[in-house]
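Lecture notes, unit on protein representations.

Consider one protein chain, 305 amino acids long.
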Amino acid sequence: MTRALRGAFTALITPMTESGKVDYAGWERLLEFQAEEGIDGLLPLGTTGETPTLEEHEEEELIRLAVKKLKGRLPLIVGSGSNDTAYMVKYTKRARDLGADAALVVTPYYNKPNDSGLIGHFEAAGELGIPIIIYNIAGRTGRNIPTALMEKLARIPNVIGVKEASGDINQMGDVIRNIKMPAQEEGRDFLVFSGDDALTLPLMSLGGDGVISVVSNLVPGRVKALSAACLRGDFAEARRIHYELLPLVKAAFIETNPVPIKAAMNLAGFPGGPARLPLGSLEPANLAPLQRALEGLGIPLKSSR
């Protein structure tokens, strides 16, 4: 499984209708678009998918549709985190039972657990028999996982890697040097994904395995090309693609994710729709930079597609 979990994965948006309901037909269109563009894998129900405001029955249907359409074609990593370990276990079991290939489990947010609590939380995830990828994003959770603690978590059975969104390239390098490389010497894998589109190139140049990307909602083929160039060691080509994508990457995070990327999808005529409250609409002043980024990539602006 870990051999398949490399390269470019899309953290999928959840398309909505104008009335705020989940657009399941739009979801299926996005799934097929991603597959046709050659993306390496998909992440339904991440932060980009607005899981804090999705109902459980909506989440289950999104997983079912993704598995039905893409099982055996693309690896599916399903977000299953919670700041309540019991709920995390419930959601991770659901991902396993519905056919996910792996689960992404975020550091518990708001309650900011201590080290022993984090170890217990991820041990509970590892006991469920599905590969677990830890999601380290202190900016949303208030709790960074330092490398020394990650070393302990990486030893938990079924924990196979980390989505690193600390924003600290030094920490990311330490995770690769102190955890991933020794694991390889022992004949096992510990995958390290970038959780920031802007850091895909530097992370992969240090030996990372890929990216779980936001901008690949719109340009999956280009993000796949970037990660593929890195994996084959063609960093001149990777740099070219990195700088080509950089204006879109900056525009996609001009406000809280996923507000800008959903606006970009709407501008390009893809299923997107509004974000659910408490996320509001894109600020009018931020529309022009987003439009320029799309135009710079040759993406036509349409009302429908």
